Amino acid sequence: MLKRKIVRLRDISFINQSSYSKSDKWEYINYLDTGNITENKINEIQQINLEVQKLPSRAKRKVKENSIIYSTVRPNQRHYGLIKNMPENFLVSTGFVVIDIDIDKAIPDYIFYHLTKSDITEQLHGLAEQSVSAYPSIKASDVSNVKIELPDINTQKKIVSILSKIDQKIKINNNINNNLEQQAQAIFTNKLLSLSEVPDDYKKSNLLDIAKYVNGLAMQKHRPHTNDNGLPVLKIKEFRQGFCDNNSDICSSNIKEDYIIHDGDVVFSWSGTLFIGIWCGGTCGLNQHLFKVTSPHYDKWFYYSWTKYHLDRFIAIAADKATTMGHIKREDLIKAEVLIPSKADYQDIGKLLQPIYDLIISNRIEIKKLTILRDTLLPKLLSGELDVSNIDI
Question: Are 262 and 288 in contact (CB under 8 A)?
Fold first, then answer.
């Protein structure tokens, strides 16, 4: 094993180096807050026209290519990323620590991979839970004090090459799925939502007529007993991140099948943050506030597409419940109209849509396997347990 030197992050980086000021006189900004990036995947970048909109108070940190951003709030939620191909006038929240690596000493991608290790996340979250603030948080100094096992530059390049190839395949699959989702939405809209007149052999119905919406259990009442390894619990947090983790609760594996979620099942969050998706994060137990959506009569593409179509209206209904946690009721599902095509048209549309959703599910399961592979290799490569000295790149 090649010798690695132990350094502190502060010894090889610059922390929170640059901030925006009015003297910059940008006409607009592209802004990323802490909640819109998870495990290097950006959900949304807000575009703000400063001539007509106010600059958010936390939109101050400047970043550059290969900056590492790491959220100071609840490190176990993994709101971190490595900036690549950034837009112009890009700012991130002061809720991030911005880390710029001295490239004469280390490769930014290698340091980013090091900071994503589970033991680093646990270490920083442990510090966060000791904070006296209203919620678990860390300081920039906590991040800069992290110890890094640093091999020579050539070894860093080899390790980054191995891990980045896996990440690139994951990214390709995600991009393919985004494209497939758009195709599926376009086909569904064209075939069922853009009709100039409804054919006589079509009929109107509602969501509860075409699918079963089974609410999950209060899983704290269904803990595993002796000799039962149990199942991870699917809550809204897990649903949003797409997987269960070491922080997920565990429930009994002996719950009814109605409350067990498998890869490819449709799940609908009907309370709090409303959204719908096809779960591909492994077998788990369904917690309350989430529906498992199935149907004995209709295919997945049909009830998934119609539920997704009504999602914006459901979100608006939930938002009106200002005095309680936003949610919808079963009566809202009954009021959600559905158009059922003739048997022949239903089969023709299904021939177009079902293969798309089958491929989406297949790609997401492959993403899960690749993620497990990367996360298994990562600590072994960074520690030197796996020798890369004889690998050519």
Answer: no
